[in-house]
Write a structure and sequence with these properties.
Blueprint lengths: L7 H4 L4 E5 L2 E6 L2 E7 L5 E7 L3 H4 L8 H25 L11 E4 L18 E4 L6 H5 L3 H33 L15 H18 L4 H10 L2 H12 L7 H24 L1 H21 L6 H4 L10 H16 L7 H10 L1 H15 L6 H17 L5 H17 L13
Antiparallel strand pairs: 1-2, 2-3, 3-4, 5-6
Helix pairs in contact: 3-5, 3-14, 5-9, 5-13, 9-12, 10-16, 12-14, 12-15
């Protein structure tokens, strides 16, 4: 493929990908390939055809459902790719020690129809290196979906539970909470006050003095007990309203941006971000119809408007709107419903990106993707020629596996 200009029909193929450890995963509509730079400087690659789940389950072609299905399938492939790349990248350099877990940014690296999307939010993915790369690619569905479940649990705690608790504490502490929406004795406020008044009169009549005793008891409490009682006051559930959900969304966004910025400071993650830039430059080269060479890829932009980073930003905004309908006076109910709405949030975000991408030059597409492009100033770094070479190999190999006209795709990787 080197040195030739792609045909018009080939150019219509939507390609995407994601950065992995010392390499790149590239996706075409029905295939994928992973290329990794080994410690000895050589490039190794593997790939296979990978039909969409919707080909086997037509119901997954329905709007909203298809977005959730694409997300889960891409996460599964992304985790396998990370395992494979870790095995190759650390095959020699890490032979003397075991690497149990690698922290990877779930900066979603999907272009086009999100053929290469890996995840909606940052997460932890187990990357064992004891097994060979080939064995990692053959891991069963149970192991892969176990990793997905772990990542989702981590993300639920960080992006659903934590913002909800922090927002609740902020509203109580600042006095913004509607007293009528709090659950602690609000419904019977007047009867309680009346009972308290009667109790006070009875106490006075009996000549008891409990105030001083209570103060002495409080003074004898250990510090952690006093801290617990103080914190409990801030955790009286506040029934969410529009303002509550807006603050909740802003806190969620702040956590997300803080994590991305923190990732960028790590040397190893910076390498991943450089491969992210190489992936984007390679996609631009393909879309321009240029020969897939380092010379042609080098001058291309490293920020791509259809990067999955834009998808993540849309997810943040959609979650603010959708979560606004969740208004229970209970932490458990609010958390449970928000978790249940995660597939809906992902599906709606996918549909928004998909519709806007039909007119890439349109104002709507530019407005939706602009925040993601800005964020790519952090999540992408300028790659060197060696990293561009790896990304180009991944794309070339995935294109070789793409079925020709009328040829059926093979069974999915198991």
């Amino acid at each position: 493929m080197k040195g030739r200009v792609v045909s018009a029909s080939e150019k219509d193929l939507i390609v995407g990908g994601q950065a992995v450890i010392e390499g790149v995963l590239m996706r075409t509509p029905a295939a994928y390939a992973i290329a990794v730079r080994r410690p000895d400087g050589t490039i190794t690659h593997t790939g296979a055809r990978l039909p969409k789940w919707s080909d086997n389950y037509p119901v997954l072609k329905l709007p909203v459902l298809r977005g959730a299905a694409v997300l889960v399938q891409s996460m599964a492939l992304g985790i396998k790719a990370l395992n494979y790349s870790a095995g190759e990248a650390f095959n020699e350099a890490e032979a003397a020690r075991e690497v149990k877990v690698a922290l990877t940014p779930a900066v979603v690296e999907g272009e086009g129809d999100f053929a290469g999307i890996t995840g909606g939010v940052p997460g932890l993915f187990p990357v064992p290196t004891k097994k060979s790369p080939e064995e990692e690619l053959k891991r069963g569905s149970a192991a892969v979906f176990g990793s997905i479940a772990f990542a989702l649990l981590f993300n639920v705690l960080l992006f659903v539970v934590a913002p909800l608790v922090l927002t609740n504490a902020l509203f109580v502490g600042m006095g913004w909470a509607d007293r009528n929406a709090q659950t602690a004795g609000v419904a019977n406020a007047q009867p309680t006050q009346a009972a308290a008044s009667d109790g006070a009169q009875t106490t006075a009549a009996n000549g008891t003095q409990t105030t001083g005793a209570a103060a002495n008891d409080a003074g004898r409490e250990p510090w952690y007990a006093r801290a617990y009682h103080g914190a409990r006051g801030y955790l009286k559930p506040v029934k969410p309203n529009v303002g509550f959900n807006l603050v909740d969304g802003l806190i969620r966004m702040a956590i997300f941006l803080t994590m991305i910025f923190s990732f960028s400071l790590a040397k190893d993650i910076r390498r991943v971000f450089e491969y992210h830039g190489a992936e984007h430059k390679t996609v631009f080269t393909w879309e321009a119809g240029l020969p897939l060479t380092v010379e042609n890829a080098r001058p291309q932009p490293r920020q791509h408007p259809r990067c999955g980073t834009s998808f993540l930003m849309v997810v943040m905004l959609v979650s603010i709107v959708l979560f606004s309908v969740v208004a229970f006076s209970s932490f458990a109910y609010n958390i449970a419903v928000r978790v249940a709405l995660i597939p809906v949030v992902a599906g709606l975000s996918y549909e928004i990106i998909r519709l806007s991408a039909k007119k890439e030059g349109g104002l709507v597409f530019k407005l939706i993707t602009r925040p993601g492009v800005w964020l790519q100033n952090i999540t992408t770094k300028e790659p060197d020629d060696g990293q561009l070479e790896v990304a180009l190999v991944a794309l070339k190999e995935s294109l070789k596996l793409e079925p020709q006209s009328g040829e059926a795709a093979l069974t999915p990787l198991s």
